[in-house]
Design goal:
α4 crosses α5. By secondary structure, the protein is of the alpha+beta class. It has two domains: 323 residues, 3-Layer(aba) Sandwich (Beta-lactamase), CATH 3.40.710; 87 residues, Lipocalin (Beta Barrel), CATH 2.40.128. The chain contains eleven helices and 21 strands. A hairpin with a 5-residue loop joins β15 and β16. The strands form four sheets. Strands 2-1-13-12-11-10-9-8 form an eight-stranded antiparallel sheet, with helices on both faces. Helices cover 26% and strands 24% of the residues.
């Protein structure tokens, strides 16, 4: 395909420039159209060693792992061994109220960012799930979307129990080996057998390569080449039995993400038609996968630090017709009383205040594991956009949505992909 070769030629010239412009140490990209693939890598895997990034280098894919976990579950659904609408307790006795489907599409409603390290043994997932009894329930299962890492760890445990073997073995036996994913690593012990990227924080190599094994089904460890991720994407393009995964299950809040979530996939209603995919971030590494079924096309972009968002946007823009960036609506009127307050989750506290000139300000402070991993707090003015969705004025932050009602006309949730709950006892505005 001439178009694919033209994109490959552009990418080979442009990728090193993009790394320099955005402070990204290294990157690897693969674009597949039909049976053809273009692979390009540039930069270094670690600024400490200077080892060159190549097409055979493995990068952590973070939460893109969730789609692989969802696929393992859907294989069991296809075998008749798991039912989507069965309670989770069918497979994990004593678990709270939630169904397998709700875990897959992030509507189970319990606190979703539990990163407890339960060790490196094969029992780590079982131990982790046993610790979830006290995790708060934020909303009734099935009533709204809130991105949930913890739910995917539970799904990984279901896979283990039904298959009767550790999650890593399930991943290798049922995805890596059948798909010929020769450069896919479940953990650091496997990754070290390849040229492995190191994440960078504040321009320096991270002192920690991966998060806890107990969060592996959600994306704490899995690493691979973009080529291997394309092999996985091609399976989804070719396998009619997996088409259900890209059927909308829940609409997303108006926060600049996709339109809806399927059974693992984020769904985008773009000008050129349906696109599905997932993003991932770990300690200084990031990944993005986009699949265009109408064009038999898939794109995987991996980076290991710096500011990867503009890099990804430029590359994706050469392949997809992306929506325009959101811009403030000068005619919007902000309901300060509805929005002002403090909203909390296990990973952050966000305070929204009105100043003496009637402007709204948002201040976010990372907590827990996000603070430990180097996330930085920020303060920004909020501008009107669409309804109860507002735009941070400071660049680099996506829209936020104020949802629900606390019974006094104020928003119950601040939604940024996750639904953070209004703290009680604070009246403002």
């Amino acid at each position: 395909m001439d178009e694919l070769q033209d994109i490959g030629n552009w990418l080979r010239e442009r990728l090193p420039q993009l790394l320099a412009e955005h402070g990204v140490p290294g990157a690897a990209v693969a674009i597949g159209a039909g049976e053809q693939t273009v692979e390009v890598a540039a930069g270094v895997l670690s600024t400490a060693t200077g080892v060159e990034a190549t097409a055979d280098s493995v990068f952590q894919i973070g939460s893109v792992t969730k789609v692989l976990t969802a696929t393992l579950v859907m294989q069991l659904v296809g075998e008749g061994r798991v039912a989507l609408d069965a309670p989770v307790r069918t497979y994990l006795p004593g678990f709270r109220e939630a169904t397998v489907r709700q875990l897959l599409c992030h509507t189970s409603g319990f606190e979703g960012d539990v990163f407890t390290d339960t060790g490196k043994g094969d029992d780590c997932l079982a131990t982790y799930v046993d610790l979830l009894d006290e995790v708060p329930q934020l909303f009734e299962p099935g009533t709204m979307f809130s991105y949930n890492n913890t739910g995917y760890c539970v799904l990984g445990r279901i896979v283990e129990v039904v298959r009767g073997k550790p999650f890593d073995a399930c991943m290798r036996d049922h995805l890596f080996t059948p798909l010929g994913m020769t450069h896919a690593a479940n953990d650091p012990y496997e990754a070290i057998l390849h040229r492995a990227a190191v994440g960078h924080l504040a321009g320096k190599p991270s002192a920690v390569w991966a998060m806890a094994r107990s969060n592996a089904p959600a994306g704490s460890m899995l690493a691979m080449t973009p080529r291997d991720l394309l092999a996985f994407a091609r399976m989804h393009l070719a396998n009619d039995g997996l088409r259900a995964m890209r059927q909308p299950q829940v609409a997303l809040p108006d926060i600049g993400w996709g339109t809806a979530w399927g059974l693992g996939w984020e769904l985008y209603d773009l000008p050129g038609g349906l696109v599905f995919g997932h993003d991932g971030n770990t300690i200084g590494q990031s990944a993005v996968l986009r699949v265009v079924p109408g064009r038999d096309l898939a794109v995987a972009i991996f980076t290991n630090g710096g500011d990867p968002k503009p890099l990804r946007k430029e590359i994706l823009g050469r392949v997809l017709e992306l929506p325009a960036d959101p811009v403030p609506d000068p005619a919007a009127r902000l309901n300060a009383r509805r929005y002002a307050g403090t909203y909390r989750s296990s990973t952050g506290e966000t305070r929204v205040d009105e100043d003496e000139r009637g402007r709204l300000w948002l201040e976010h402070v990372p907590l827990g594991v996000t603070a430990e991993l180097g996330d930085e707090g920020y303060r920004t003015e909020l501008a009107g956009w669409r309804g109860d969705s507002l735009l941070p004025v400071e660049p680099g932050h996506g829209p936020v949505a104020f949802l629900g009602d606390d019974g006094e006309g104020r928003a119950r949730y601040l939604h940024t992909g996750r639904a953070d709950v209004r703290s009680p006892g604070r009246t403002q505005g």
